[in-house]
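Researcher: Good morning. I'm working through a list of sequences from a screen, and I'd like to move beyond sequence-only analysis. For each chain I'm collecting a predicted structure so we can compare shapes side by side. This is the next one on the list. No need for commentary yet; just the structure.
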Amino acid sequence: MKKTLLSSKKLSNLGSELTDIMNILEMNNIAMDAVGLTYKTDTETFNFMAKEYMLVAYEQNKNIYNRLEEIALLLLNNDDSKELEALGNESTK
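Model: Good morning. Structure tokens for this chain:
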């Protein structure tokens, strides 16, 4: 078994960040449910809410995807010091 080069503090921070992302996704699900409820009662409000939600959610999902990709690369390369160094340099750009 290979030894991880990520510190326990870094792993803990990544875990906290993943928990935050899970909370954001849950809030998105709640918002989608609320928008869906308006569909049955008020078409005009639904159209407005759906448009607003999609604009915000699209940008948010792009940001979440990018951060998840960074976290995955860190975890997948946790035993490769050169890769971790390169990833560390990229994340500070």
